[in-house]
Write a structure and sequence with these properties.
Elements: H1 10-23, E1 26-30, E2 38-46, E3 51-60, H2 64-75, H3 81-91, H4 93-106
Antiparallel strand pairs: 1-2, 2-3
């Protein structure tokens, strides 16, 4: 497990983030989608010559706050990124969207139901 201790510099955090990227085949990033705040699931494919990164799934949002809420939810589930990436690669982005919607509602307490 990669750890950054409290009080470490921003460069230490940046180095940690780069090591994490190097070992992950799938990762979630905050990047604009169609000129709007967005979240993307990126996947690394190893071709015969070079590794290629492609977008497997994306979602755009009306504002940064909405994007950041989903991003935080996804980060708390980093242990599932590989499974989600495999699903999106095999069955497509729509299948992953449906799964994420189910999971998001499963995580909500029943008291929030209308």
């Amino acid at each position: 497990m990669i750890k950054v201790r409290p009080g470490k510099s921003a460069s230490a955090f940046s180095q940690c983030r780069e090591r994490f990227r190097a070992i992950c085949l799938y990762r979630v990033v905050r990047e604009p989608t169609a000129d709007r705040p967005g979240v993307k699931l990126m996947g690394v494919q190893i071709s015969s010559n070079v590794p290629l990164t492609r977008v497997l799934w994306s979602m755009s949002f009306p504002d940064d706050h909405a994007r950041d809420r989903l991003f935080a939810w996804l980060v708390h589930r980093v242990d599932r990124w590989e499974e989600w990436g495999e699903l999106a690669a095999r069955k497509g982005a729509r299948e992953l969207s449906e799964l994420l919607l189910e999971l998001a509602f499963d995580d909500r307490p029943a008291a929030m139901d209308p």
